[in-house]
Amino acid sequence: MSEQTTMGAAAPGSREREACERRAAGDETLTAIANDLGVSIQTIYRWTDPEYAENQRRLSREAKARRKSELAEYDREYYLSHRKKCDCGRLMARHSLVCEHCISGEKVAKREQMVALWNQGLNAPQIAERVGTTAKTVQCEIARMRREGIDVPYRRPYQRDWRCVLGETGVDR
Ligand SMILES: [Zn+2]
Questions:
Q1: Could you give the 3-state DSSP secondary structure of residue 85?
Q2: Reduced to 3 states, what is the DSSP secondary structure of residue 91?
Q3: pTM
Q4: How far is the CA of 41 from the centre of ligand 1 (A)?
Q5: Domain count across the chain
Q6: CA of 85 to the centre of ligand 1 (A)
Q7: Chain segment 96-143, per-residue pLDDT in tens
Q8: Do 52 and 13 share a structural domain?
């Protein structure tokens, strides 16, 4: 073994230069140079052959890109195979408790229930209690339905139950 190897402190740049010079001189085998500098033959190729070096960089870039898309694909498959089912049997989006279909169905059902209770003469707080929401939400939903053209009659004054309306911020009519 030569002094270079035992020293081992030579900067990579200087070993690289030395490899180039010794390879260019042409009186040693690559194996000998590699052993002498304490590196692999591939490293000697990389240091002395720009085309080889570029090819190696390209291969490594490609391998990295392949790993990345493999990981993304694995994630996707994991997500799809672990999707939870709604009570109705349909698959749900991640983190959902109900599927899209049931969300819209629930909304329609809740609206129908609200209108039915409203038509029975209940006020917003009473409806809210029945459907499990707040009076404010009921008032907003009724206003929204009216804007959307759904028939929710206005109350006549004599139908008002003032005891229930008192203290409420929204107009219950
Ligand atoms: Zn569902």
A1: strand
A2: strand
A3: 0.40
A4: 62
A5: 2
A6: 8
A7: 888 888 888 888 899 999 999 999 999 999 999 999 999 999 999 999
A8: yes
